[in-house]
Amino acid sequence: MARLATLLCWCCWLALGAGPLGAQTPAGAPGVAVPNVPPLASPPLPPAAPPAAPAATRRPGNVRVLKIEAEPAGRALVRHLHPRATVPDSLTALRTVRELVLALQADAYLTASADNIRWGRDTVRVRLYVGEQFRWAYLHNGNLGDGLLTRAGYREKFFRRTPWRPADWVALQERVLTEAENQGYPFATVGLDSVRFSGHDIAGRVVLKRGPVVYFDSLQVIGTSKTKKRFLTQYLQIPPATPYSQQRVDAISALLRQLPYVRLRAEPEVRFARNRARVYLLLDERSSSQFDAIVGLLPNTDGTSGVQFTGDVTIALRNMRGGGKQVALQWRKTDALSQLLDASYLHPNIFGTPLEVGGTFNLYKQTGNYLTIKPRVQVSYPTARAGRLSFYAEQQSSRLLLDSLGYVAINNQNVLPTYVDSGYNSYGIGYSRANLDDLYFPHRGLFFSAQGGVGTKTVRRNASISESLYNGLALRSTQYSFGARAEHYWALSRQAVLLVRLRGEGLFNQQLFLNDLFRLGGLNSLRGFSENQFYTNAYGVGTVELRQFTGPEGYVFVFADQALLQAYSYQATTLGAHTPDTPTGLGAGLSFRTAAGLFQFVYSVGRSGFLNTGFSLASSKIHFGLTSRF
Prior knowledge:
By secondary structure, this protein is mainly β. The chain has helices at residues 2-16, 72-80, 90-106, 146-151, 166-181, 229-236, 246-250, 252-256, 404-413, and strands at 21-22, 64-70, 86-87, 113-119, 123-129, 135-141, 189-198, 201-209, 215-222, 262-264, 269-273, 276-285, 290-299, 307-320, 325-333, 338-347, 356-366, 370-382, 387-400, 422-436, 445-459, 476-491, 496-508, 518-520, 534-536, 538-551, 554-568, 578-581, 584-593, 598-607, 621-629. It is 14% helix and 45% strand. The N and C termini lie far apart (80 Å). The model is unreliable at 1-21, 24-43 and 52-60 (pLDDT under 50).
């Protein structure tokens, strides 16, 4: 009876935690108790061996057999825990016994203990007391709102006639405190009240002491950053006079690392005073606006000797007037006949909300064939965990640019060309998430984005083409599109980084034309091939790239790009002619900082069954360019 009374008092002390569990206070601080490991009396040390002759000294490698004795009801439970059968030394034996007792206590056998250990020459005998399993009689809601307990994962059936495991109770405490911290009570404490014991049954009420309600105060920026505090307050979703949220404070670092125009010098600090929480950010300005000019040299594709020049010019202005606004313009000349123009604008915190409104415009012109324009409007919501949820509306319009002789040839052949006048209106949803340690030169982290859309595709009749050629063609149809991209960076050493990337897109419709398809190939998609060399409706590209950094913004790299796609021939005279292909690109390059900007050089070769090309120096690709940030 004395053992049972003592152990029940210990059990009551464990359940109450010597006081309620608290939030926002370091463990072990005065006046705040934390969940403790049940006390366990240290088993006696092995007896000192009497002096013996050197010949009789036991070899250090001789192991002892560990034999555990328990009451009949507890033997099966001990066998289920699979304690080790032998121990090489006394320290391992003590550690094994302690782990066994703690495992029993964690499984609601709160009075389990090692009562006696006897040390023999070749055996260690342990007398283990398992005891009875304690259970919840019930756990009622004390003063917590039903909504808070529900969000914390509390269900009364989980705490009625179930084993009283300390880990389950601590986990419930943590979840309740997390909910309280995110509702303006960072100093809340939670504990058991009205505790009752009936044999091995424990009953009580969960009680929350909320403490003072705390509101966000002003945001303080320390450093050289020119970003306005008003923008940061709305972007981080911590406006003044709103209840304090620990979740939003924890997300500040991840959100700030996604802004290309600030550098976070240290983790944010929060200071509490007079029921107010003031957040301090240590931010420096970072050059993010840029001017890029890349020139490429490619062999002529018309069979003649010589090379042709390609170009890529980008102008991007970020964080205009410190308000987070961004505008960008890019022009690309991929070959002698093709040109692309991309423009974008982003306006954050529209009407004082966290919403971001953006627009993009894409133009692709293939001289003498067709012109495609694609405007898009998008609304994004930055989530508290560094992700973005987006909704968009997009319109794509394509028209032929043939001359009169081209139309005559089409009518004479009595077949539609592989590109037609068409339109596509779609709506979709997207999500992106980034957890990179650096936006420009990451060493570790993950980036992921995905989007999907659906809409109506319309084929428009061309007045210069015979109407009979459109017979049997579905002029209106439903079209689906999706895309995804995932990147993972591993820091293999202080300077070596491994990048693994997967990306892909798909376009599905019962009838596809060349001006509907994705264009693949080149420096930004599939290295080792000319820009936009492949036309496809579905593809996937895997990349493995090893980077060896030579400085903060300089590195050399080797890479391999492997693609899987349905390749369409732009010379086909029948619609839907396509061939599966697995092109491969290999190469190396370097990137380093100069006084004029960031210089990049890439050399690559490619192999494709569809193009009937192999790895050859004669068809290698060289890209070099200079990026200037200001």
